[in-house]
Amino acid sequence: MSTILLVEDELTLAETLRYNLEREGYTVLLAADGVQGLELARRDQPDLIVLDIMLPRLDGFSVCRILRQESDVPVIMLTARQDEVDRIVGLELGADDYIGKPFSLGEFLARVRAIMRRTERQPRGASREVLEAGALRVDTSSRRAWRESGELALPQKEFDLLACLIRNRGIALSRDLLLERVWGLDFIGDSRTVDVHIRWLREKIELDPARPRYIQTVRGVGYRFEAPEDLP
Ligand code: CA
User: What's the gap in Å between 68 CA and the centre of ligand 1?
Assistant: First the structure.
């Protein structure tokens, strides 16, 4: 099952593309701005990214440039203007293809299929990310995690939550932000989900879950990960 990340702020277009890609059997992730697109690309390692250029917070050119430093995931850029096409070609951003808006659904799906066929034949090297804090070690490429006493058996959401916390060590993260990053925008539920998973995670990673040293509660906000080596 291949996963496609759609970074597109025009919701109607995004939903139409998503619907049709899902009908073709792809798993689809949606991001409505460049920053979120980058986050989902890093977290979920999609097989293909469809990237609009004019995006809130971080434009598609910047997203593509940053992505290229980190992975060789195929990228199709969506462009509304001829001068954008010139920039895509001229900047050598490393985009694999571009489609001018407006485009037909048939054309779009054909391009996606073509790229998927090409990449399925030559599996790309996944980028390796190992996060370390105190006695904790999290390898997001193999999705394995360890503490002093050995390997941790973490369910998917607890693993994603821990990786997200360590990546943002020292920063207070709100429950809403954690919900969005770990559970995604589609998640229907409330922030108590975060609290429950934090409790489970503490039971696994903390020596004394009642007096956590890694995951600190930030009253009225959410949680903050503290690595012992970062403390004064
Ligand atoms: Ca746009």
Answer: 21
- The whole-model pTM stands at 0.53
Of the options 2.40.50.100, 2.30.30.100, 1.10.230.10, 1.10.10.10, the CATH number for the domain spanning 130-230: 1.10.10.10
| CA 155–ligand 1 middle distance (angstroms) | 35
Mean pLDDT of all residues in 27-40: 96
Q: Report the relative pairing of strands 27-31 and 215-218 from DSSP bridges.
A: unpaired
- Contact (CB, 8 A) for 33 and 55: yes
Give me ligand 1 centre to Cα 58, in Å: 11
User: For 3-120, CATH number?
Assistant: 3.40.50.2300
Expressed in angstroms and rounded, the spacing between residue 71 Cα and the centre of ligand 1 is 23
pLDDT tens column, 104-136: 999 899 989 988 887 765 444 555 678 999 999
CA of 41 to the centre of ligand 1 (A): 18
